[in-house]
Automatic annotation (TrEMBL):
The lineage of its organism: Eukaryota, Sar, Alveolata, Ciliophora, Intramacronucleata. GO terms for cellular component: cytoplasm; kinesin complex; microtubule. Keywords: ATP-binding, Coiled coil, Microtubule, Motor protein, Nucleotide-binding. Belongs to the TRAFAC class myosin-kinesin ATPase superfamily. Kinesin family. GO terms for biological process: microtubule-based movement. Pfam families: Kinesin. GO terms for molecular function: ATP binding; ATP hydrolysis activity; microtubule binding; microtubule motor activity. This is Kinesin-like protein. The keyword Coiled coil applies.
Length: 508
């Protein structure tokens, strides 16, 4: 299924109400027209024009609340994630434009952002989806100076960044990316999720260099992994939701930094440039150019987000811009980038697997229950079923208000009696008794027919699944190995990785 990238724009409220504010018009909350100030010389802008226009899935103006952003952008994405589709929401924009405010939120609970709201929504939805069983796992990582680090490793609170374990990436022969040394945490409720988010943010702050305290110089990826099971079909699915807060997108010339900070800025610039290159390459390929190679491997971030940017993933971008003319150059850079992203589409599919053994087991049990019920029904004409408890102890008379009942009404009363929902049938005449017996005979025949039909259906289904299962078991080990290395199965290898991690830790 094709899934067009969705691109949202969020304008940060202006700090000052002076003439320095960016002048713009918003049409239907989808089209932003930015008026170009005459006195501002911007090399990148064609001076013949007095405005530039940009289109979005939706534009959130300066008055938009956190809740509005969450409902519009995130809710549909999480619903599809809970159905078994991979998804990524990433915030992109210059430093201070509101990426962290949008993704994580501000100090108060009311101003919480996309990530904490997502956790609440996921657990609320899980409670409602009663025919599914879900398990949720969380990991949280940071990419800083082209190295990836685990933000949920408690040891990182005690040691400086230089001594942190770097997350190792490796690709299997199917080009799937796997991660080593990234902890994955089981999460049973919203509070546990929030605690993990807070711990990660805390570790990130503690590790930060002086400049980081006011501005985040790293990319952050908060990942929710879901293992789901549709209990009615025994279909298992695994999906991933990446919530990404990218580092500020401003150019080095603007940030005017030196030394270590210049190094950081270079890495950020480089990784965002590589991100841009990936987007351009994907755009060209979409427009029919012969682009086999997409340069994902140029940076850690694009390697990690490979699936989000041209694979099996529903991808959403939130572009954040400030509303001051001072930042116009960066604002235009963000707006232009977002237009390119908005043209992309991914091919998405549900990451599902049927547990054939579980299906066969269930069908065998159903068949056994049906055979037992059928035997009992043949013997006594009634079936003991927990669902059919007597609702009332009152007598049901074949007569109502002294008037004789018709055949259908008698059948209904007899059915209640046979289902043990009433204890007696009060028969007052020979004709009534005759009609009751007739009704019993009819109902018995109908019920028998239903049983036979259902048994035949279950037996056929059982036979079919049995055949598939046998075929599957007979498949060569080569094919099984291939299946096991698919990205959907990454989570199942978690324990293996954790064992490797725990073996490595004492030596570090
Ligand atoms: N929409 C908004 N409404 C109110 N305040 C906002 C909004 N967006 C951002 N802010 C405030 O602006 C400041 C900078 O925002 P934020 O830290 O989210 O920027 P950022 O894009 O994440 O920057 P960096 O790239 O440095 O991490 C914060 O104090 C934040 O609370």
């Amino acid at each position: 299924m094709k899934s067009q990238f969705e691109v949202y724009l969020r304008l940060k409220p202006s700090n000052n109400q002076s003439q320095n504010s960016m002048q713009y018009q918003l049409y239907h909350n989808k089209r932003l027209q930015v008026l170009l100030p005459r006195n501002v010389k911007l090399g990148m802008i064609n001076n013949n024009r007095d405005n530039l226009e940009f289109n979005f899935t939706h534009v959130f103006d300066q008055k938009s609340s956190q809740d509005q952003v969450f409902s519009k952008v995130t809710v549909p994405v999480i619903n599809s994630f809970l159905d078994g589709y991979n998804a990524t929401i990433f915030a992109y924009g210059q430093t201070g434009s509101g990426k962290t405010y949008t993704m994580s939120g501000a100090e108060t609970w009311q101003l919480r952002g996309v990530i904490p709201r997502t956790l609440s929504y996921i657990f609320d939805e899980i409670d409602k989806r009663t025919k599914f069983q879900y398990k949720i796992y969380i990991s949280f990582m940071e990419i800083y100076n082209e190295n990836a680090y685990d933000l949920l490793e408690k040891r990182h609170l005690e040691i400086p960044l230089e001594q942190w374990n770097k997350i190792a990436l490796y690709e299997d022969d199917q080009d799937n990316i796997h991660l080593r040394d990234l902890s994955i945490h089981s999460c049973n409720n919203e509070q546990e999720g929030i605690d993990l988010l807070m711990m990660g943010n805390f570790i990130r702050q503690v590790s930060s260099t002086p400049m980081n305290q006011s501005s985040s110089r790293s990319h952050c990826i908060f990942t929710v992994t879901l293992e789901g099971c549709d209990t009615t079909t025994e279909t298992y699915f695994v999906s991933k939701l990446h919530l990404v807060d990218l580092a500020g997108s401003e150019r080095i010339s603007k940030s005017q930094v030196e030394g270590n900070l210049l190094n950081e800025a270079k890495y950020i610039n480089l990784s965002l440039t590589y991100l841009e290159q990936v987007i351009i390459a994907l755009n060209e390929r979409m427009k029919g150019a012969n682009r086999q190679h997409i340069p994902y491997r140029n940076s850690l971030m694009t390697t990690l987000l490979k699936d989000s940017l041209g694979g099996n993933c529903k991808t959403v971008m939130i572009a954040t811009i400030s509303s001051e003319n001072d930042n116009l150059e960066e604002t235009f850079s963000t707006l232009r980038f977002s237009q390119r992203v908005g043209q992309l589409e991914n091919e998405i599919r549900r990451n599902e697997k049927v547990d054939l053994e579980a299906v066969v087991k269930r069908l065998e049990q159903e068949k056994l229950v049906l055979i037992r019920e059928l035997e009992q029904y043949q013997r006594s004409g009634t079936v003991n079923s927990n669902n059919k408890k007597p609702q009332t102890q009152q007598q049901i008379l074949p007569q109502q208000n002294g008037m004789p009942l018709n055949k259908k009404q008698i059948q209904e009363k007899v059915e209640l009696y046979l289902n043990e929902q009433v204890t007696q049938l009060d028969v007052q005449s020979y004709d009534d008794a005759q009609m009751c017996f007739e009704a019993m005979k009819d109902l018995y025949n109908i019920r028998m027919k239903e049983y036979v039909t259902e048994l035949t259906f279950i037996s056929e289904k059982l036979q079919k699944y049995d055949e598939i299962l046998t075929r599957k078991k007979e498949q060569s080990s080569f094919l099984e190995q291939k299946e096991n290395s698919s990205p959907e199965n990454e989570i199942y290898k978690r324990n293996e990785f954790q064992q490797i991690n725990s073996k490595q830790k004492p030596n570090q």
